[in-house]
Amino acid sequence: MNVLDLKSISLFKGDKCVLNNLNLNIHKKEICCLLGRNGAGKSSLFKTIFGIYKPQSGVIYLNGVEVSPKNRDQYLNKVGALIEGAALYEHLTGYENLDFVRRYFTGEKSRIIELLDLVGLMPDKDKKTKYYSSGMKQRLGLAMALFHKPSLVILDEPTNALDPEGISEFRSLVKRLNKVEGVSFLISTHQLEEAGYYKDHILILKEGKLVFDNALQDIQALRILPHQTYPHVAEELQDQCYWREDEAFTLLKAPLTEFPLLWDELNAPSLEDIYLAIHQQKSHATHELLSY
């Protein structure tokens, strides 16, 4: 069962279609990264998931249950969020901020200690959060988003304000919490390196359409032949050796074994290659990649 399913979601603002017949699934215990330019529809997608926007068509399922106005509160109790920077009461300590969340959800105090330990803030639990570093604040914000044990946590550009050390710590923490808490993450980011770090599941939105939906490691099973470096090979193969599935890739092996140096130059596409191909519409390579 998937933790989240969006079926044929379309959303209009006036005459503008901001989400166009969107279908996506997020599996349980999965880390999914959402990429796209500003204005691609990422924020509108999140607001639709949260129930802030009501789509003109389509259905949302959480843990296999259709979301409706009648069960909206129950649905939202299964979703956590950290939108950019953590919203903290800076005159309160880390412990007190989590206790505020605990009282809202009528949870157990033992959950506060459990989460502080998980995010590495136990030594600083009694320090006022105005003295926390940016990285510590984000880790506390993540603990707050996880307090009620949601099935899905949405992170909107969570590392934007962090230094390299803070980014590394936060990424490692997300991976650890994914395993320990068994929670799925949907992460919006502009950083290709960050999306590539998680690898589980990459989504790319373009003008309200989901134009890429795959695991990065599956795409990297494909190969690129750099025809710019070896134009005679590209001409001989009639320029049909860009993005290839494994079966087609195998067919290329026989002629290329006569050119061992060329064979060694076959490379897996990076996430940057994929992203730029989509947004710059690079030749028919884009079409062959997206149809994989």
TrEMBL record:
The keyword Nucleotide-binding applies. One of its GO terms (molecular function) is ATP hydrolysis activity. Keywords: ATP-binding, Nucleotide-binding, Transport. The keyword Cytoplasm does not apply. PANTHER family: ABC TRANSPORTER ATP-BINDING PROTEIN ALBC-RELATED. SUPFAM superfamilies: P-loop containing nucleoside triphosphate hydrolases. SMART domains: AAA. Residues 4-232 form the ABC transporter domain. Transmembrane segments: none annotated. This is ATP-binding cassette domain-containing protein. It comes from Nibribacter ruber. It holds the Pfam family ABC_tran.
